[in-house]
Amino acid sequence: MIMKRIVTITSVLAMLISLAVAQQSGSREQYRYRAESGARNGTAGASQLLIPQGAQYLTGGGAVATATGVGATYWNPAGAVRGRNNVETSFSNRSYIADMSVSFFGAVLKSGSNAFGINIRTVDIGEIPVTTVFSPDGTGEKFAPTNFTAGFTYGRMMSNRTSMGMSLNFTSEGFRRVQGNGVTIDAGVQYSDFLDVSGLDVGVAVRNFGQPMRYDGSGLLVDGIAQGTDRQVTKYKIEAAKFDMPLVMEMGAKYNIGTNLSLAGTYEVNNFDQDKLKLSGAFNVPGLGAVRAGYLANIQSVDIQDNFATEDVDESEASLENIFSGVSFGASLSLLRVLGINASIDYAYIPAEHFDGNTVFTLNVGF
Q1: Residue 102, H or E segment
Q2: Residue 236 and residue 217: Cα distance in Å, rounded?
Q3: Which of these, 68, 51, 163, lies nearest to 117 by C-alpha position?
Q4: Quick check: 356 and 344 in contact, CB under 8 A?
């Protein structure tokens, strides 16, 4: 039985490492390609899948190794089975950029060495005025895009130190009778006391692996006359381009220094963005709460050569930076002594360049 578990875990790790190596190689090719034809930042489908969820893990420093319970259904499904409660629920709201808000709800049920979880994520974009070439200031109409993701997670303890997990996510986004749907898979592994080092936890996860998504719907119908025929005006459907999913590979670790202090870090390989380094530190007071600080930095820099076809714009002065780079901070407060139930509130503040900083509140309840 032990040998079977070792073989299974080794096979999964080999698969994850292979994806990481292939992804890293592809990423380098993309950055060489960017110098001539432009960067891929912001061109992925379902980019809302990259918005960090929950306040406890800030921008993700060490989350792939430390996320447990409901938080793990987003960061690393292997941690879903490591929650302290048999039943755990969580609700989070994030004030995002440009007056948008992101809501997250999840629940996890543990049964022995297994755990089953669900999570729902929505992005409230608000109403957007309809503009056209002939009415650049607006036609008076408005539309409200929809953005929804539902995830189903399974996690299992393979040994007293090792857990594995997988999530299946369904994503739907649309606007004005046009909609795109996609299915992605997350998979990960977590180890505790790695290499027999007490307090050292590591994790590896691949998120958003799936087929490209394409928009479809009656909103893509246009009036046209086929040339070379006797047909009158007829409805024709525009075939939208496919958009790849924003594949992410993360490797992270956390180390506990004594009973109160912990340090963590994550290296992220992103298919449509620069690789990132995420760091975090936390000071915990058992039974009361914790305070945290995080740091996010881009590892790669991209030099953009000017496209002489655009004479009025000097693109060589453009820069590709993550607007959430820099320092973030947060805290948690246990409500057990106040309410008599196993509940807590998490808070995070994440600065955003060019926008108001993001505030995140999360309510956790366990049974």
Answers
A1: strand 101-111
A2: 12
A3: 68
A4: no
Check pLDDT > 50 for residue 53: yes
- Residue that has been written with the tokens 């994440």 in this structure: 350
Tell me if residue 37 falls in helix, strand or coil: helix
In sequence order, the 6+-apart residues with CB closer than 8 A to the CB of 87 are 107, 108, 109, 110, 366, 367
Terminal alpha carbon distance of the chain: 32
140: left (phi over 0), alpha (psi -120 to 50) or beta: left
In three-state secondary structure terms, 158 is coil
Close Cβ partners of 75 (under 8 Å, ≥ 6 residues apart): 53, 57, 60, 63, 64, 67, 205, 250
Within 10 angstroms of residue 42's Cβ, the number of other Cβ atoms is 10
Place of tokens 């503009």: 131
Q: What is the pTM of this model?
A: 0.84
Length of the chain, in residues: 367
| Sequence-ordered list of residues with C-beta below 8 angstroms from that of 227, at least 6 positions apart, any chain | none
Enter the tokens of residue 93: 């709201």
Domains of the chain by start residue, with CATH: 2-366 (2.40.160.40)
pLDDT of residue 343: 93
Give the model confidence (pLDDT) of 337-348 as tens digits: 888 889 999 999
Residue 199 has which token pair?
Answer: 């307090």
pLDDT of the residue at 70? 96
Cα separation, 83 vs 64, whole angstroms: 14
Tell me how far the alpha carbon of residue 357 is from its chain's centroid.
18
CA–CA dist 80, 115 (Å, integer): 6
Rounded Cα distance between 343 and 364, Å, is 5
Which pair of structure tokens corresponds to residue 237?
A: 């459907």
> How many whole angstroms separate alpha carbon 54 and alpha carbon 35?
36
